[in-house]
C-alpha cells in the first residue's frame, strides 16, 4: 500500500533520539494541522481500502500471536510521521494523506460525522471535500460488508497500531528529514523531493510558498515527472556530452539551483536573469523553481500543438503518429530524441524555423533507420556524438545538443548538413522513404 507522503506499512528502523513511538490513538489526539504548503487531500477509495485491509490483517496477526486476550503485546508499525511544532499545534510535514485518513476512520468508528472540522485543514479545496466525502462513505460501506467490528478497530488504534513520530522545532529540519526519510524508504519521485527542497528555500515567504503549492498541485503529476525524466534531465546530460541514465533521487542536485544569498558572481548574474530560463543554466532556488517548471510544461505543450497543427509540419506529424511504427520502442526513442532537441532549440532561439525543425527531425529519426535494434545505449552515443568506432554505424554522428548549446544564431541549425541515406537497407525502409520524401537525400 502506498502513501503519497510516507513509507509503506512495514517494520521500520528504531527511532532516533528525535523520535517517539506512539499509538495511533495518541497521534490522532494531538493538535494536528495541515500547513498551507501541503497538497490537497487526494487519497482515493483504493488507498482507503488498502489501509483498512492492512489494519484488519494487523488485528488478525495480533490474535494469532498471543491469543484473543493478548493484543496489548503485539505491535504493528505504520511508518513514520514528521511533525513541525508551531506554537501549540503540530504541522504535518510528511504523512498527511494517511494521517487524515486515519482521522476520518476514527470519526466513523466514534459514530461522528465529517460535517465538523475534524482536523485543521483547508476544506475550501473542492478536491479535498470530494475525497473526504467519498472516503467516509466507502469506510461505512466497507464495514457493512465485513465481520470486523468497530470495537476491534478502536482497540487496535490504542493497543496494536503504532507509528514513529518525529517532531522538530524548525521547519527547515522537518524538510531535511522529509528528504532523508524518502531517500532511505520507498522510491519517491525526484520532482517531489525537489518540491520539498525548494519549499524549504521559501520558508520565510509563506504567501508565495502557498501559491507555489497551489500551482504545483493544479498540474498533472505525470506531466511533471515526464518533463524531468524524459526531457529536462536528458537534455542537460547530452548538452554536457554525458550519457543519460534514469533520473533518480541521487541526481536531484542538478535542479537545486543557486541560493539567493550566494556571494558567487555567477549567481549574481543568475539573479539578474530571472525569471528568464535556459534548461542548461542555473536558476535561483525557491520560487523560481516552480516558475521554471510551469515555463517548460507550457513550452512543451506549445511545441506539441505546433507540430500537430501547423501546416508546414504536416509530414513530421504524419510520421510521428504512424500507429504501426509507434509499436516499436526504438521509434519511441527517436520521438523523444526529436522532442528533446526541439525543446532545447526553442528554449534557446524562441522560433520554429521550418528548416531548423526539419533538420532536427531528420537527425533524430535517421537513428531509427540506421539501427535495426535501437537501445538507450545507442541513443546516448548518438546524442553526444560518439568518437568511438561505433560512430561509423550512424549516418549523422553529430552532438546535436552541444551544437545547439554553442550556436549563436538559429541559422547555424537550419544550415546543418543532415544526410538521409541509410548505412544499409533494413526493416525501416518505409520510414527511410518517408524521410527521403521530405528532402533529396541531403539537405543543406
Automatic annotation (TrEMBL):
Name of the protein in question: Uncharacterized protein
Pfam short name (any one): DUF7834
InterPro entries (UniProt xref): DUF7834, GmrSD_N
Highest taxon above the source species: Bacteria
Domain DUF7834: 210-424
Residue ranges annotated for the GmrSD restriction endonucleases N-terminal domain, each copy included: 25-198
Annotated source species: Bifidobacterium gallicum DSM 20093 = LMG 11596
Lineage, top ranks: Bacteria, Bacillati, Actinomycetota, Actinomycetes, Bifidobacteriales
Amino acid at each position: 500500500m502506498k502513501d503519497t507522503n510516507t513509507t509503506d506499512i512495514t517494520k521500520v528502523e528504531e527511532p532516533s533520539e528525535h523520535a517517539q513511538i506512539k499509538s495511533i490513538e495518541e497521534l490522532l489526539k494531538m493538535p494536528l494541522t495541515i500547513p498551507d504548503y501541503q497538497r490537497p487531500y487526494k487519497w482515493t477509495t483504493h488507498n482507503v481500502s488498502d489501509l483498512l485491509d492492512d489494519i484488519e490483517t494487523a488485528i488478525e496477526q495480533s490474535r494469532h500471536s498471543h491469543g484473543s486476550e493478548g493484543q496489548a503485546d503485539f505491535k504493528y508499525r505504520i511508518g513514520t510521521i514528521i511533525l513541525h511544532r508551531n506554537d501549540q499545534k503540530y504541522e504535518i510535514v510528511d504523512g498527511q494523506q494517511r494521517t487524515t485518513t486515519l482521522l476520518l476512520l476514527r470519526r466513523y468508528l466514534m459514530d461522528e460525522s465529517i460535517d465538523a472540522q475534524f482536523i485543521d485543514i483547508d476544506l475550501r479545496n473542492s478536491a479535498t471535500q470530494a475525497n473526504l466525502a467519498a472516503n467516509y462513505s466507502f469506510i461505512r460501506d466497507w464495514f457493512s460488508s465485513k465481520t470486523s467490528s468497530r470495537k476491534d478497530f478502536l482497540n487496535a488504534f490504542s493497543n496494536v497500531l503504532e507509528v514513529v513520530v518525529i517532531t522538530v522545532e524548525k521547519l527547515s529540519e522537518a524538510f531535511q528529514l522529509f528528504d532523508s526519510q524518502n531517500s532511505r524508504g520507498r522510491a519517491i519521485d525526484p520532482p517531489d523531493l525537489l518540491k520539498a527542497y525548494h519549499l524549504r528555500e521559501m520558508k520565510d515567504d509563506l504567501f508565495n510558498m502557498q501559491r507555489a503549492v497551489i500551482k504545483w498541485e493544479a498540474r498533472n503529476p505525470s506531466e511533471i515527472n515526464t518533463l524531468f525524466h524524459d526531457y529536462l534531465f536528458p537534455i542537460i546530460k547530452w548538452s554536457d556530452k554525458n550519457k543519460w541514465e534514469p533520473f533518480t533521487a541521487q541526481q536531484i542536485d542538478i535542479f537545486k539551483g543557486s541560493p539567493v544569498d550566494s556571494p558567487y558572481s555567477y549567481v549574481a548574474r543568475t539573479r539578474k536573469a530571472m525569471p528568464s530560463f535556459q534548461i542548461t543554466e542555473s536558476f535561483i532556488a525557491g520560487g523560481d523553481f516552480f516558475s521554471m517548471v510551469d515555463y517548460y510544461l507550457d513550452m512543451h505543450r506549445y511545441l506539441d500543438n505546433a507540430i500537430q497543427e501547423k501546416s508546414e509540419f504536416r509530414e513530421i506529424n504524419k510520421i510521428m503518429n504512424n500507429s504501426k511504427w509507434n509499436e516499436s520502442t526504438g521509434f519511441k526513442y527517436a520521438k523523444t530524441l526529436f522532442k528533446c532537441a526541439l525543446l532545447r532549440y526553442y528554449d534557446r532561439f524562441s522560433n520554429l524555423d521550418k528548416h531548423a525543425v526539419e533538420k532536427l527531425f531528420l537527425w533524430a529519426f535517421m537513428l531509427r533507420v540506421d539501427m535495426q535494434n535501437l537501445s538507450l545505449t545507442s541513443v546516448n552515443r548518438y546524442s553526444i556524438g560518439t568518437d568511438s568506432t561505433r560512430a561509423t554505424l550512424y549516418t549523422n554522428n553529430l552532438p546535436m545538443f552541444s551544437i545547439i548549446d554553442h550556436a549563436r544564431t538559429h541559422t547555424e541549425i537550419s544550415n546543418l548538413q543532415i544526410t538521409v541515406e541509410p548505412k544499409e537497407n533494413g526493416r525501416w525502409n518505409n520510414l527511410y522513404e518517408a524521410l527521403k520524401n521530405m528532402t533529396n537525400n541531403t539537405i543543406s
